[in-house]
């Protein structure tokens, strides 16, 4: 079987590449070893797919080369993808500022992409693993359950290592190395943090408690919800900061973001001088957390017994609470993989390898990782669009 383009990976980036290339008259085959296309799309956003973010900018991405993503993002914007969604009459809503979700189901996004592939004459085959991939005269060759495949161009859209239960693997990194590319160290990103030993014991019994916080590490800060779990901390604020945290990194949590904690405590003392600190804190924080703070860390007395200096000290603690995390939940629950194929050896305008003519990398397999909130999908659409125009 001969094609102009072989795309390995039927996820967001691979399908977008195929749609654009097929629309330009290229003969395209998309293969994926998983049993269905777009598995990560299907589970994203709680099954409603946070398919883009209208606030997308290069500042929302982590990479050893922060300039790499600029060209593709500028040439395919969130509004370009929204136009496709609207054309297929898929209803959507803005859940949080900039974050767009399907009203109904993420299945509609996968169906849209597959319909676009069909309209462009693209062949999509799932349950189809690639083996013996190699450079060949006029392009690339490989073996598949379909038979021997030859293609003039090859797009690696295999994603990262996140959520192996959906079929994630390191195959894309292996292909990159095979053709002489450097792969930067990878680790789980947008992932819950774990606590251990006394640090876990102190928060035991708080699983399910959630509150708005500001999480800070390595000069980065994210204000959103935090959730206590049986094993540690999760919630959007923690997932965001996890991409900037590594073992040994100082992690701080502002438990009362946007408020002067000391002033709030002084007001509590003036209004309820006979009430204990844990009672006043329960009006500022979830009750179970307030009680635990006073059991383990903070002296619990009637408010009238605290001097201003003491309340100022307690307020400073609440605004800059140190957390000693032991690790992360790992790739099992991570939404993305940090690191990947070094972008220094890839064209930022076409996604083509600088080492191997006709070889392209798109999406998460590259060292480009977005923040939480639809940014990683927008990178998939934009990088796939860039490659689709170039093959």
UniProtKB/TrEMBL annotation:
<keyword id="KW-0285">Flavoprotein</keyword>
<dbReference type="InterPro" id="IPR036188">
    <property type="entry name" value="FAD/NAD-bd_sf"/>
</dbReference>
<feature type="domain" description="RsdA/BaiN/AoA(So)-like Rossmann fold-like">
    <location>
        <begin position="4"/>
        <end position="388"/>
    </location>
</feature>
<dbReference type="InterPro" id="IPR057661">
    <property type="entry name" value="RsdA/BaiN/AoA(So)_Rossmann"/>
</dbReference>
<keyword id="KW-0274">FAD</keyword>
<feature type="domain" description="RsdA/BaiN/AoA(So)-like insert">
    <location>
        <begin position="187"/>
        <end position="336"/>
    </location>
</feature>
<dbReference type="Pfam" id="PF03486">
    <property type="entry name" value="HI0933_like"/>
</dbReference>
<dbReference type="InterPro" id="IPR055178">
    <property type="entry name" value="RsdA/BaiN/AoA(So)-like_dom"/>
</dbReference>
<dbReference type="InterPro" id="IPR023166">
    <property type="entry name" value="BaiN-like_dom_sf"/>
</dbReference>
<protein>
    <submittedName>
        <fullName>NAD(P)/FAD-dependent oxidoreductase</fullName>
    </submittedName>
</protein>
<dbReference type="InterPro" id="IPR004792">
    <property type="entry name" value="BaiN-like"/>
</dbReference>
<dbReference type="Pfam" id="PF22780">
    <property type="entry name" value="HI0933_like_1st"/>
</dbReference>
